[in-house]
């Protein structure tokens, strides 16, 4: 599958940037998550539906990536963060929803 990470207006890949800043063990796990997604190996991942078509994958303790699968070929990576509590922090929730709405317009499908 092709992974398409959200990029800032300046072209910064927010998912890769988040993973690169993690401690070594977490970074390795995060990169293996991306590799499994790219190989369409979702059955080995700890995922759940978050909201609408948005899913989240957990890795190394409290880290997670929010994503959308479109068809059988593309995964859009929306946001990565460290989970602080049992539910998504409000700021992270707002970021995911904003990026999902932008993506709805860009690719023309209902996400939320």
From TrEMBL:
The record's section on InterPro entries has:
HigB-like
Q: Native species of this protein?
A: [Clostridium] fimetarium
What superkingdom does the record give?
Answer: Bacteria
The name on file for this protein is: Phage derived protein Gp49-like
